[in-house]
């Protein structure tokens, strides 16, 4: 039985399958050469800790991000006081 054309997925397509381009490669790690001339040791350390957390289990990533956040807050507070 043939009927009117009905738009839909291509024959053989699976529901929920990704459509479009595949994701690109992961971002490259931050290295010292990537940082600007105006540097602060505590900020550099926090940025490196966040970049290095990528390979850790999620619970450990959260701990790294929280520590980096606290470091950045403290650093900004000292800059504001100056």
Tags for this model:
single chain; 82 residues; mainly alpha; 2 helices; 0% strand
Describe what is shown at a glance.
The protein has two helices and no strands. It is elongated and about 80 Å long. It is 44% helix and 0% strand.
Question: Can you tell me about this structure?
Answer:
With 82 residues, the chain is an all-alpha fold. The protein has a domain at 32-81. Helices cover 44% and strands 0% of the residues. The protein contains two helices and no strands. The chain has helices at 41-52, 58-81. α1 packs antiparallel against α2 (58-81). 2% of the residues are buried. The model has no long low-confidence stretch (mean pLDDT 76).
- Low-confidence runs: none
Mean pLDDT: 76
Give the proportion of residues in helices: 40-55%
Total of DSSP H or I helical runs spanning 4+ residues: 2
Shape: elongated
Task: Write down the secondary-structure element order.
Answer: HH
Distance between the termini: 81 Å
Q: Which helices and strands appear, and what pairs or packs with what?
A:
Layout: H1 41-52, H2 58-81
Helix pairs in contact: 1-2
